[in-house]
Design a protein that fits this description.
With 341 residues, the protein is an alpha/beta fold. The protein contains 11 helices and 10 strands.
Length: 341
């Protein structure tokens, strides 16, 4: 985890992982810049990190009931944006930070989305979002943002591009440790995006807000998204696993064939994720330690036989991450520098 040493203590997540505690409500999240990146990399496509706690992956789209949610993990750093996902555990001091830097490959997949989104979640704020809210009030709380706001460098350029393209009804972010709201009008008489960022979870901070979003009567369960899985399959041959710049398709792929494959592959699973599975022994507070990841075998692969030669292996199997990458059965089954604080 990339964070100051004083914060590297075992706190309470292990209780949720082990099942000792259960999240009181279904919880959906994206990764930021202070995460257990080795664990989230196992769930690159998204999946359960604990019962009732779902990670959206490095980029992803899911349904919660009839609410469609998209997400992008990490923060933007231009020096890594065009690289592939080259980092491998155990991470050195550089890779432990670069692994959570947003990649063009993941952004371009999200840019292919055509069907409307109700919610989008990112850790970074979209660049330029301060133009649509009370920036004067923001600067009273965070005066050191002034130059970045003037220079149009506060926030993420890829997130700005996604906001303009996807136009979700709501966009939620974090990262800058302050509450900020904005309303973005997309063109004259166009749709509106309501943006909200919240503060750190500390006493006296604005870290929680309840928003009511109209939905059907349920059941409110997580389901995979057909369009997103088709995009994932279409882009899978280009999955970048080295430092080299990514060579992507020049034109938008024809998703019709890929949607048919996804539909056929996922029919028997009703587009729902598998139940959470513990993949390593949980932390034992009586022993003061947990399993050593380096000593663990690879986790078994999900959906490793669809018995249909017409369905490409990269949908049926999860081996797309290469033999070097550990897989996790909770994953969606298609095939002390504080500068980042």
């Amino acid at each position: 985890m990339a964070c100051p040493v004083k914060y590297r203590t075992m706190n309470t997540f292990w209780k949720y992982y082990s099942g000792e505690e259960i999240a009181p409500v279904p919880t959906i999240f994206v990764g930021g810049n202070h995460e257990a990146s080795n664990y989230l990399w196992e769930l690159y496509y998204g999946g359960w990190v604990a019962p009732r706690i779902f990670f959206m992956g490095f980029a992803g789209v899911i349904w919660f009931g009839n609410i469609r949610i998209g997400g992008l993990s990490g923060i933007f750093k231009s020096r890594n944006y065009y690289s592939g996902h080259y980092e491998r555990a155990p991470y050195n001091e550089s890779d432990i930070r670069s692994i959570y830097h947003v990649r063009e490959y993941d952004v371009q997949k999200l840019m292919q989305i055509e069907e409307p989104l109700d919610i989008f979640i990112s850790h970074d704020w979209p660049r330029g979002i301060t133009d649509f809210g009370n920036s004067e009030q923001l600067l009273r709380h965070k005066p050191f943002f002034e130059n970045e706001i003037k220079n149009k460098t506060l926030g993420s350029q890829p997130a700005e591009e996604l906001l303009k393209k996807l136009k979700p009804s709501y966009w939620f972010s974090a990262h800058l440790h302050t509450k900020f709201a904005a309303v973005v009008q997309h063109g004259e008489n166009g749709p509106i995006t309501k943006f909200l960022a919240l503060d750190k979870c500390l006493p006296g901070h604005n870290f929680l807000q309840v928003i009511e979003i109209e939905s059907d009567a349920g059941p409110h369960e997580i389901h995979y998204d057909e369009e997103w899985l088709a995009i994932t399959q279409a882009y899978n041959p280009y999955f970048p696993l080295s430092r080299k710049s990514v060579q992507l398709m020049a034109e938008r792929p024809d998703l019709g064939f890929h949607r048919q494959c996804v539909r056929k592959c996922m029919k028997e699973f009703n587009m729902k994720p598998f139940d959470f599975t513990i993949t390593v022994p949980p932390y034992d507070p009586t022993q003061g330690k947990t399993a050593n990841p380096a000593s663990l075998d690879e986790n078994e692969i999900v959906l490793d036989d669809a018995d249909d030669d017409n369905v490409p292996d990269d949908v049926d199997e999860i081996e797309v991450l290469s033999q070097q990458a550990m897989t996790n059965p909770n994953e969606i089954a298609v095939h002390e520098d504080d500068s980042d604080s």
